[in-house]
Amino acid sequence: MNSNNHVIIIIGPTASGKTDLGFHLAQRLNAEIINADSRQVYRHMDIGTAKPSITMQKTIPHHEIDIIEPNEDYNLAIFLKNCKQAITKIQKKSKTPIVVGGTGQYISALLEGWIVPKVPPDINFRLSLEKELESNDVSTLYKKLVDVAPMAAKRINPANSRRIIRALEIFHHNPELIKNGPQKNPPSFPSIVIGIDSTKEFLLPRISYRIDQMLKDGLINEVKQLLNMGFEENLPSMSGIGYKEVINYINQHHSYETMIEIMIKRTRDLVKRQKTWFNALESVNWIPITNENLPSVAFDLIKSKV
């Protein structure tokens, strides 16, 4: 089987087993893994981002993991550039690239060939919107985006003020770049997309277990270490699920029990958004999470398509 020309993409909601599936497939396909999780790019943030284990990373080369500090910028444009470079590099070694991740925007952009607008930051415009946020709820800004660029708004979490501001900034610079959704240039590589399909009833206990295990593994100490290293609480990287809640717990803004409840709720909300992204994709080969032979089924599926 020669799958080198294809890019294998593994998608699914948080806690569905994407990391394990990608690892098993990489061993059988002579492959390397490219991370498509927007949080695993940060160094020193291992437990809360559920990075592949050190053993996994030593066994199979992984790309786009631990590449920047928590106070450095990372965005869709950087991901697409780095991911495409990694795909080319892996294929030149006659190996198969496997992209694994749950950041729906990244996966959609890669598969659909989004052209990310090269719009420089407009500091004054950003400051005006951030000032508006101080006296208004984020929903006010989101409504502004819906009014001027509804298709762009559909692709943004209504609570993500950073992405809402960036979208409004692009519209302010040139409405044509965003009002009808992203411009596209279909990718040059063929892909096989495998999705792990999961029901809410099956996934919810796994989410609770995952959070409990992160806390047992030392998530609170990891956050304390980040703060002691001088990384500020309000960094975008520190707003991720787990980190924000632990910071509030450390600052005695809520109890340990409340911290866990909020982490579970935010993870469930994330799963809903992930499913919205992934269900909009075409040509996904869905495999039930309950399938005990999931890695073998996925391998056979790939084998049948290359």
List keywords for this structure.
306 residues; Histone, subunit A; alpha/beta; two-stranded antiparallel sheet; single chain; Rossmann fold; six-stranded parallel sheet; 13 helices
Give a description of the structure.
The protein has 306 residues and is of the alpha/beta class. The chain folds into two domains: 7-116 and 184-305, P-loop containing nucleotide triphosphate hydrolases (Rossmann fold), CATH 3.40.50; 123-181, Histone, subunit A (Orthogonal Bundle), CATH 1.10.20.140. It has 13 helices and eight strands. Strand 2, helix 2 and strand 3 (62-63) form a beta-alpha-beta unit. It is globular, with a radius of gyration of 20 Å.
